[in-house]
Amino acid sequence: MATNKSDQYTDEVASPPVMHGHNEVGAPVRKYFKYTVPVGDEAANNLIQLVSIPDGSRILGGLLVNEAMSTGGGDASVQVGDGTTVDKYLGTTSVDAAGSRAFANTAALFFGQELSAAIVLTAKVLTEDWLAGAVLSGYVDYLP
Q: Per-residue pLDDT tens for 29-62?
């Protein structure tokens, strides 16, 4: 049986030790967000800017929590992205009924990605308008 080391542990035990990057060590920042759908509903294909994440940060995942968003005209859905790629951190997911789901929590959803530029975490309204007064909230964790 072999024993191997992560990149970070290899740096720690090197002689002399190699310092880790600012976005590899320390306590993560958690940013909370809350969005209440305005009177008149939120139209399908609209974007909702949730929070900003600075350049050089590493996203460590997040949680999206929603009330029932459906106006009854279909299956209300959401995607979470970076303002450029609308489904980068969460592919099309139903928010028809109340619930919660993790995002940016797998390699395919860019967990641990080092950002090359600041982003605004963005939710995209899909399939049908969202119900006025319904709340979308959650948080994102990252190492700055």
A: 999 999 999 988 888 899 999 999 999 999 999 9
What is the tally of structural domains in the chain? Answer: 1
What does pTM read for this prediction? 0.87
Q: Are 87 and 80 in contact (CB under 8 A)?
A: yes
In whole angstroms, how large is the CA radius of gyration of the chain?
A: 18
Neighbours of 69 (CB within 10 A): 27
Residues 6+ apart with CB under 8 A from 141: 28, 29, 30, 59, 60, 61, 62
The secondary structure of residue 17, as a DSSP letter, is P
Task: Tell me whether residue 6 is in a domain.
Answer: no
Q: Which residues span the domain enclosing 88? A: 26-143
CATH code for the domain in which residue 59 is found: 2.60.120.220
